[in-house]
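yo

u said u wanted the structure for the complex thing, so here. seqs first:
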Amino acid sequence: MSVDPDLFESMRLELRRGSLVLAVLACLRTERYGYTLRQALAADGLEMEESTLYPLLRRLESQGLLDSEWRAEEKRRKRFYVLSAAGTEMLAALADEWRGINASLDKIL
Amino acid sequence: MDLIDRYLNAVAAQLGQDERADIIAELRDLILSRFEAREEELGRALTDDEKEAILHEIGHPLVVAARYRKGPDSLVGPELFPYWLFGVKAGLLVLLAVHAIGLFIHLVSGPGDAGRSIAQAFHSFFGAGLTLIGAATLAAAIFEHYGVRPKWLTRWRVKDLSAFGLSDPAVWGASVTGSETAKQTWAPRGPKRWPGGDYLFSLLATGLFLLWWIGLIHLPALGQVGLRGEDATVTGAPIWTTLFLPIMVYGLIRMSIDLDGLFRPHRARMRAVGEAALAAAGLWLIWVIFEAGHWFTLTRDGESAQVAGDWSLLDFTRLQGLGDGGRDLTGIASTLSVVATWVLAIMAISLVYRMFANLWRLAQPGRRGGA
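structre next:
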């Protein structure tokens, strides 16, 4: 029996949704602005829509996990994001959790 | 105004004033970055169609703006949805029962136009049902918006769950047949039974009644009685106009006590005071209605008959002779008079019981908790 592509796509999206925050936090150990962050994520195989990424950045900033500042670069003002101290701690905790889940799943799979 | 401005204006209109400029500046940079990257790939300036294709990829302005919105992004969230669904299902069942009874009375009270009666009942049921769903959704949206999570929603106990079976019509049927399962489901759980389900249903029923009372829900089946193929019109007696406001206030107080029971189940003593006072007020209303003596008037072809009653109708022999009434206007009015008199009497007895039960609750020292 072949895999239902629609069902697979819905489950795939559900599976990766929770990991996107972790990926964004990890990527922002280096300061980036939205567009370059999206490119960096895509280069590592994690495509993310702008309409998801930009609101997520603002939410993480409002939660104190990111710092941001407007700065001019390449003739335009851009908003740069970087992990805050609280964000660094959160990333470490989430990464531990992720590794734990991964190890458990590896055993099961 | 170019494409970017037009797109960003549409997004900006959906955003709050305090964060609008910041978000739009960031989106503008995103769009320009996307345009530049594409131009670099192609080695030329983009056409308007190509720019529009990129804006399409970024998303519809309403969707983009919605992602930035703080607070809930749905009227009924996943946490509240099961409660919303229960309320709607239970409310629709109550409405269905009310309409079925109304339709039944209409059909058996005379050989009227059955098709028309059924159509009217359906029309009325769907109208009332949609109003109910709208009201439930509005309530859920307010809960979502303000993050309200009443205690009956979070601190539930297994022994308090029997009332939730009410949304399953099969349970109603089982309870009518008196099956053991139904008895176990419906048997009283003693004085400490949590009344959340009762309050919820009382709230729903009173809310529906009040919507009808103030004219927001129309039940055409209640305004007409079929008599030998013709409709007789039912009009209320002057007493209902006199008591319009008191009955509305009574309903509103009933709902506020139900809400108190749902949101603050621990205030049982305070609520018992309210229940006893409301029962006394209800008794007064029943007395005034009874004393008025005339409740409805049936009219057909210029002929009219009053649905009216007094103490003489509170006689069991009158009840036994209910089916013997004539099928003409006077006979139907006479039958309805007996029914209405006894309904008032039963309501009065239940209110007396309620009043004394709550006074007894108050008289018991140290009694606490939802009773």
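The two ends of chain B are 67 Å apart (CA to CA). Chain B is about 65% helix and 5% strand.
cya
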